[in-house]
Amino acid sequence: MKQSEVTVVRIYLTEAERAMKNLLARLHDQEKVRGVTVFRGIAGFGRSGVMHSSTLLDLSLDLPVVIEFFDEPAKVRRILAHLKDTIPPGHVVTWSANVNEG
Amino acid sequence: MKQSEVTVVRIYLTEAERAMKNLLARLHDQEKVRGVTVFRGIAGFGRSGVMHSSTLLDLSLDLPVVIEFFDEPAKVRRILAHLKDTIPPGHVVTWSANVNEG
Amino acid sequence: MKQSEVTVVRIYLTEAERAMKNLLARLHDQEKVRGVTVFRGIAGFGRSGVMHSSTLLDLSLDLPVVIEFFDEPAKVRRILAHLKDTIPPGHVVTWSANVNEG
């Protein structure tokens, strides 16, 4: 299988953060990322130490979400440079991977 | 913790693609992969640029799904070679990781 | 974007395993992990080869779940050493990544 290098990005937010929808729109409209997938967690906690869980009704709007995408390393670096003022420290994880070219 | 090397695989599809169920059955029945997990995204977009979101009822059958598994690097290479005609380019991401041996 | 190295951890369990809730509480209360997210799969199978799927009602309590977190490599090593008797072999996958420092 022919492959090329990509950088995988996972951005950790919660549903309550407005950042989530804006970010998705931006990745789609401006950054023209190849593909993005958003996952909702069923529970989690962040720096605040506060637990977010889908079993607690009153917290149901603040579940963790992860925005995941991958693209060429140079393009990902550019995108993250654009986003650096909108995402708090400790919320963007990246690593190298390979993608099939068909 | 004793560890051994594995290759992690994430395959990006949508629920509407028949490929999804066939692939899962194949990984289970023929390839005898150690373990597979399927995740459903709540939103996303692919090469087409069309947004898929669980908030739009009419698109609810075309949400993104990710099929994830990991196994020994040589076994993963064999499996991906078998699958190369059934998965479109740009949809299979792999990287090296370690797994606990107990 | 300034970055530092982290180890990403994904622990594969099922909802039926009591280990899941205990582990989450432990990571939160004792290990003081920076952040944890729990994802529920919609289908999957493990070593047993038994398929777990959200479309089969009677198996709905045994869906796959993944507990994901990341932290400094040395801290992750310590945490995994503490957990090694509570998680079966082949269920903890780790890899190196970078996190944004803001």
Automatic annotation (TrEMBL), chains A, B, C:
Domain of life from the UniProt record: Bacteria
Gene3D superfamilies according to UniProt: 3.30.70.120
Pfam families documented for this protein: DUF190 (PF02641)
Family: Belongs to the UPF0166 family.
Protein name: Uncharacterized protein
Organism encoding this protein: Sulfurifustis variabilis
